[in-house]
């Protein structure tokens, strides 16, 4: 475990300057006036916050900084687009605490598919840029607002929020924090809320999973996929079908997937029908588009299809209008009469739209924490805030097995230099890829043109043949 | 309880003749050749059946009849249309028993909404006429086929089947029979399968009903409505909204409906929003059409809408093309993106499409029977087979509170005479109603015509006024 100590603020500011030069981020002076941002609400220097601060035992090695020098690093989505749209910036001024709120010094943040959608402007739950993304983190309570009785300074908590979690300091309603149970690391805690609450509510509330049932999990090596697998294993004799590329089959098989299917080389519908001819009890569908249709048709009587995303919309780093339009066009729509005749259920789930349902979330969180021992988040990799682009790329290209985590621990100097080199290589690589794509397109176009020509010729031949046949028929008739 | 003894066959034949004269049914000679009917499969005189029959202790007062004189009364849907399309006929010949089948001497049959739909040709699970309708009955096992080990002659059973239950003798797979628990009458047993399994699977499988949740039950005084109310009461602190006409409120209130709503005089959506501003956890929707839209919009996050019929299609005795088209046109269709953003579930249920799911049904039936004591079917009324028209009319006009039952016990002579009188009166009444409708329509048309005229006159006046105004304006401009 890393990052147990809060980073020293002054050191951060230093690093920030260097880092800006490397990553072309804005200078601190240009950092967005967070005044207008809804989440978390900051302020200049409120007396409550100051009072709370002096009460706080300094968790850092150095003394707590003065209010006016209070600053912290934050990832900021500066506009919709590619990986480089998320920049590391420094926010200044100590956030004020309202009644019922707490301030958390963040250790680890979780990366989710919704964050990728958000960056492309495909997720309407994130306020407009500039805004700090991130739905979950773990850390230590640094200050508590008025009327907060269930949390105290020093508590280790995990946090679930609509947005704003990818920064070193967050202010949230205490109802959005949950105590980290004994024996759970900050990484694991940051990996828990979104994936496990999502999987839990889908499987046990909408899905009503019971022993001897069968479940299909797409992207079985992803965060929700692994959470769902572990939760299915808490029920006896559940048959699990999981799609993932072949290289991940060993891991997901060990994790509990009964039948891993390589969706890149096999028709998963066919594979499932071979093993389970009657179909499935539950289909978890994060893909959308044509895969939702396939999932629906795989349902047994009393089966449930649970749609929780449209990952098919993500094709590349930037918004791909064709992929979006195709996924949207193919998006599943169902008539109640079809549901009645099939005795089927179609459900939609997205945790991002449940942020006001604090009681529901708290119950699900408690249920998930109660299962500790039976479940354990699998961490794929941990990136520094500076490396958020790489982290996003790894998820989007589906190279991860388990959860991708961002740590607020600052990068070391040597790491940074190496990173800079890698960045250069990546840029070259991206350019090569782009060039190759263009070339391939040209070749494709040429081929298509050739084919068209051939087709035309063939059709012309057919027409000639027909004409001849007609002539012959006419002759016959004459005879 | 009536009809404990099996009716004597010869007496039945006698009665049948008289009854035909009253109800204008076909003569027995014209009774449909059941050879071609899929369900139940009869035969001329198979030796197995004969053997089984001689083994059977004669349950009737008279001696068991010879095979070739074996006959039984059956209700037969002779074609799609009004109440008179279901006729009482006599079937001849003893049904053969295949391996795994049992023959049941029927005591009581249940009436369901699907039977009304079927009569109008709106239910595709009933084979084409001529066919015996009916999805449930109770009775006593009279013979068992080969390989039947779990049932014996004399067992009291309830039966759930796709169709064919409205007759004195039925032959079904043993898996479609369930032992009637101690202390349950034949009426109650016949009222149990369709309504309670439907309500059970909807509330607990699709709905995942839990304490402190809220449920809307339409047609709360109907068979499924009362079953659902009783099942909801087995869970702590469930808030129940139930729609029914005002005259039924006392009964459904006593039964457990927290907030009865008269849908004829109130906007139920408004009433529910007043009490439960956030909406509902579960909506059971047997109506279809625009009510499904209303139900969907009433759902809380994680709410479930369960559609299980299209009662709105039934408007009158015969198929009403306008009602069908309107219900069909307004039928609900939903897009997964809407479900995702609302965190909602839409389910379809119909027991008629689950007839091959014997394990699922058996589990639900066992669960329902286990709740005996907490649940108890409410019998609205019991009709003789001869009165099936009245029974269907009572259900269709929604005059029942609870289940409508058909008994196979033959009608007494005096009753029949009274019935004949009533029939005459009803016919007159129907004619009066028709005449009144026609008259009302004439009056309405006349009124509409008047209104149109008035409107025209008013518009003419307005036009005059406008013309004058224009003139005045023109004058002003001149000045």
From TrEMBL, chains A, B:
Keyword Oxidoreductase: yes
Sequence ranges assigned to domain Enoyl reductase (ER) in this UniProt record: 81-406
GO BP annotations listed: negative regulation of mitochondrial fusion
Annotated segments matching region Disordered: 1-69, 401-479
Coiled-coil residues: none
Annotated SMART domains: PKS_ER (SM00829)
Cellular component GO terms, alphabetical: mitochondrial outer membrane
Name of the protein: Synaptic vesicle membrane protein VAT-1 homolog
UniProt source species: Sinocyclocheilus rhinocerous
């Amino acid at each position: 475990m890393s990052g147990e100590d809060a980073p020293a603020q002054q050191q951060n500011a230093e690093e920030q300057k260097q880092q800006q030069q490397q990553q072309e981020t804005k200078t601190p002076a240009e950092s967005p006036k967070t005044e207008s941002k809804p989440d978390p609400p900051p302020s200049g220097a409120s007396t409550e916050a100051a009072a709370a601060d002096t009460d706080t035992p300094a968790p850092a090695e150095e003394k707590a900084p003065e209010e006016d020098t209070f600053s912290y690093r934050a990832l900021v989505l500066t506009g919709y687009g590619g990986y480089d749209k998320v920049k590391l910036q420094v926010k200044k001024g100590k956030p004020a605490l309202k009644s019922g709120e707490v301030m958390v010094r963040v250790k680890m943040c979780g990366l989710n598919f919704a964050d990728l959608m958000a960056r492309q402007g495909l997720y309407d739950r994130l306020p407009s840029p500039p805004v700090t993304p991130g739905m979950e983190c773990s850390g230590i309570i640094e200050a508590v607002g008025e009327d907060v009785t269930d949390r105290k300074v020093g508590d280790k908590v995990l946090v679930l929020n609509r947005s704003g979690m990818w920064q070193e300091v967050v202010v949230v309603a205490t109802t959005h924090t949950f105590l980290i149970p004994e024996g759970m690391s900050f990484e694991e805690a940051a990996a828990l809320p979104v994936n496990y609450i999502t999987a839990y509510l889908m499987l046990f509330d909408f899905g009503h999973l019971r022993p001897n049932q069968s479940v299909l999990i797409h992207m079985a090596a992803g965060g929700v996929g692994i959470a769902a697998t572990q939760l299915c294993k808490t029920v006896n004799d559940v048959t699990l079908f999981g799609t993932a590329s072949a290289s991940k089959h060993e891991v997901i098989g060990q994790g509990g997937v009964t039948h891993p299917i390589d969706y890149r080389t096999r028709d998963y519908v066919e594979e499932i029908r071979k093993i389970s001819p009657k179909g499935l009890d539950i289909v978890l569908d994060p893909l959308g588009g044509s895969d939702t249709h396939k999932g629906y048709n795989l349902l047994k009587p009393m089966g449930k299809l649970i749609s929780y995303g449209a990952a098919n919309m993500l094709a590349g780093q930037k918004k791909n209008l064709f992929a979006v339009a195709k996924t949207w066009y193919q998006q599943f729509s169902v008539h109640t009469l079809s549901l009645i005749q099939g005795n089927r259920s179609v459900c939609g789930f997205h945790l991002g739209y449940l942020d006001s349902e604090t009681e529901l979330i708290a119950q699900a969180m408690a249920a998930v924490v109660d299962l500790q021992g039976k479940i354990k988040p699998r961490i794929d990799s941990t990136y520094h805030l500076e490396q958020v682009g790489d982290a996003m790329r790894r998820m989007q290209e589906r190279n991860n097995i388990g959860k991708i985590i961002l740590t607020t621990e600052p990068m070391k100097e040597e790491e940074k230099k190496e990173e800079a080199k890698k960045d250069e290589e990546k840029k070259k690589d991206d350019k090569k890829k782009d060039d190759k794509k263009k070339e391939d397109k040209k070749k494709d176009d040429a081929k298509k043109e050739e084919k068209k020509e051939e087709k035309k010729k063939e059709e012309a031949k057919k027409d000639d043949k027909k004409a001849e046949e007609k002539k012959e028929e006419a002759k016959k008739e004459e005879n």
